[in-house]
Amino acid sequence: MNTFGLINFVFGLFAALAGLIVLGGVFRRRLSSKSTVRFLRWSLIASLAGLMPITRHLTPVQKISILSVYCSGAAIVAWLIFGLLGRWRRIFVLSVTAVLYFDFAFLSIRVFRNSLLFTPSTAQPFSLSQVVHLLFAAGFIVLGILAVRNCRIEPAKLPALGKPQLAKGNIHHFRMLF
Fold first, then answer.
1. What's the pTM?
2. pLDDT by residue (tens digit) across 104-135?
3. Alpha carbons 42 and 83: distance in angstroms, whole number
4. Cα distance between residue 158 and residue 9, in whole Å
């Protein structure tokens, strides 16, 4: 594994663990600003490391990295600019779930890349790795739907309320991401 692959794996692992805490907070009404910032920061670092090896064609990790950056951006906008009011709460929850899925996808690609159990077979229409990834994606789709339906975040307890602009208190959280 090259240096960028190692950075991608390590920060993807950290982000996945922090993302589980954030998603748990979505279900329990307690969304921690520190955990959310930590999750989004580590996910962005993992995504940027996944984008770094410049190639002529996009690799699967680079495609996942691009999608993860877009979803992280949507979560940041929904949280810090719109304060999770109205539909922005759903956008935040779906974005966080998607970023968490992409973090787990980073990990599975890095871990199972050289495994004999998950190597594609040309004799079968679906390989074991394709079936596992399909079930994994289906599980996260169900998790995302449940998260949107059972979202317990209360906007009054969040730092960004009111007008759709960066409030003074939110600039600190936004700067913490970078």
1. 0.77
2. 888 887 777 655 544 555 556 667 777 777 88
3. 22
4. 31
